[in-house]
Amino acid sequence: MVKSRSTVFLALTLCLLSVPAMANDAGHSDPIAPVLLGVTGVLFFAILGRFLARSLNQPTVLGELVMGIFLGNLIYALGGDFILVLREGTALFDIVNLSLQGEDLRHAVDLRITDPEVAEKLWTVISGEWGGALFGIAHAVDVFSRYGVIFLLFLVGLESSVEEMRAAGKPSVKVAVVGMISPFFLGLLATWVFMPEADVGTLLFIGATLGATSVGITARVLREINCVHKPESHVILGAAIVDDVLGLISLAIVSGIVVSGGIDGYHMLQTVALATLFVVAAFFGGPPIVRAVIHLMDSFEVREAKIFVSFMFVMSLAWFANLVGLATIIGAFAAGLILNDGYFQRWQDDKDPRQKCLKVKDLMAPLEAVLVPIFFVLIGLQVKLESFLSMEVILFAMTLTVAAVIGKVVSGYVAGNGLNRLAIGIGMMPRGEVGLIFATLGKGLGVINDSLFSAIVLMVVITTLMSPPLLKRTLAGGCND
Known about the structure:
Number of strands: 0
Structural class: mainly alpha
Strand content: under 5%
Radius of gyration: 23 Å
CATH class of the largest domain: Mainly Alpha
Oligomer: single chain
Helix content: over 70%
């Protein structure tokens, strides 16, 4: 069985290696065909990574991420230079934008790609006969992955609520605040020691990335060992909700500083003011708009209304967040916090009981299930293992990991007496998908280079792998009753 699976995997890898040849013939068929093949190929390997992760009892995000790392570096090592269109990520779109602004395409490549050897290979790929088709594949994968992140944060928001944040309690709030501040400054210090020449944007973005927490991984472990009812679990889950909000606030401020070009009092106040305006407008203006739209859908089935309203609302808030200079994921998260099934009570007399049982989360989850894996595979594809040929990068990655672990473990010790404070700190440790999203945004803004990105991804992988077994051990006993 293992042999047959390996054979299938190898065959599909070779099939993906043949994409350029297929793209080369795209002129004789539907031009969208290579895009369909590329996106489907990425999704297939995401599913394979998820399957392997579950087989090894690991978080699915790790399987998708590691599959992307393996696939990208394997194809590149085997001479598949066309993989550069995915490995270079946003750099490729920057090159195209420079070209559209009148810059010579070759010069644009040299401006955006600092490694001369990589620049030469990428130029050969995008200027070749099938360069257009490969760019179409890269663009489609990028768009799908961005949609995936939006729906991921929307569902995270759906699982939280303003009421839950209010009910989190002082221990959860203290853990969240310390769990954000401590790793932020430790990460900032570690980066400054290894990269004294780094600009303010780089320092702040790495600090913000270390401050993030992925509660999804911890929640899964707590459910597995039947510990959700423990007081420690309540503190962890409550802190994670507050941590999400604090993390997105820090992301908004850091992104504003990066875009403005430095720490400037006026720009910081402007960013905070715009973020405040967005929150006020979303939380006070969002519900009436949702109710008005729902009122216009009386003739729709409840399932249709929930899908259409949810999709339009999350996309509108994501766009609105971008309009005021914030990340789209902040708008998506806010949409999740605001929207709930209570808005659709007008269908409570629906004669079909199956319609009434359909929740917004259940209806939107399939979109997230298909699109989010593409995002994590794409992140893995952009991790360049050759970056770790430098001992300095390895040491920096290990230092970041230590800072990430200590920063979160310390947060557990402010939870108060009578609790397993070490378990609480470990529960806040995994960065998972949230850390990866922060790192990707930093790379897109140009403040995180390939080496830093690879080091951050390694930190995310290690903290995510460490947390489940350590949490099980520290909470062992008294859970399975």
